[in-house]
From TrEMBL:
Signal peptide: none annotated. The lineage of its organism: Eukaryota, Fungi, Dikarya, Ascomycota, Pezizomycotina. Pfam families: FMO-like. It comes from the Eukaryota. This is Thiol-specific monooxygenase. InterPro entries: FAD/NAD-bd_sf, Flavin_mOase-like, FMO-like.
Amino acid sequence: MGGATDFNLPPPANNDHYLSVAEVTEFVGKATQKYSSITRYSTMVEDVQNLPQGGVRLLLLWENAEGTDTWYEEDFDHVIVATGHNSVPRVPKIPGLGAWRGGLQHSSTWRSGEEFKEKNILVIGTSESAIDLVLESLPHVKGDIHVSQRTPHPRYPNVFDRPCVKVVTTIDHFTEDAIHLHDGSVLRGIDVVVFATGYFYTYPFLSNVRPPVGPGGHRVPGLYQHIFDVHNPNTIAFVGVVNASLTWLTWEKSAFLVALRDVQEAWEADRLAEKGEVMFHILDLPYERVLFFDELNELAAEYLQQESADETLLRGFPFEFILALIASRPTKLRKYGLLKDVGGRGVIGPAIPGNHSRIVRLQVTRF
């Protein structure tokens, strides 16, 4: 489901339903070898400046093999920012965190449940990272795993309803050896606190050419369709900002749309009013993914006028993926050890109290 037009992931080994990190890493490494002649490694972009005559000047840092650095400048016509959004861990500001004597870790550095062998851990967060971390650590930890969450997972709200997992409320403050919760209870004897709290969007190398990210690092301001930079429409575009399923397919479509620009500021304002800062780049519900996918097709309609146009790039939304996603839900439930499907937001199934269904009419463009 993560494949692109000519970049399709292999089936998982051992008849598993999910690829391992090692399998994905190996595949991507091999698939990108054919681009090695145009790829510059060990090089970081430290600064970007717009040039009066057009184009941009990059300040680059090359890390030499002998451990020294070489600084130099180079001019380009355009910059495509494709650094993703899972690089700078988000750790919430909680009073007293600096006084805490126990261990602190972010899920970005976690690799195996064995890391917490014979330890008491508190996991903060609700996302897939928190789920994987809790389920894989259960056989190794000492005692119960405590999970502090503000709200349940939107699609698997009962995933932590199991033995040896205790869901607690949010944290009010830390002391040296205790964690005080907002309901007045206190956790003691915790060895490690693990933050599964997501990541910041951050682009320090663009500080001279565009505004900083929004409050809390949740949103990149001035992006139309999560791609086009309204502040630098002739020089800068983004690929890979949007956070959704079908990511590789979406990245591929975004890559050949970066030259388009129109009604960008209005789109951003409407999106911000509807979704807010935190959810701005997240396509949370299935209908949003369908609409976004086909909106990109509409924007790229002029691409079909080219003799070299690849029609497979502009195919309609692959509904078979949604059908496969729905069909795979029982498998995901088994992976999470859930015997009962209680539904969730964006899921076909029982409604969760307080959630309200939304009927959306989809006009799908097919090419």
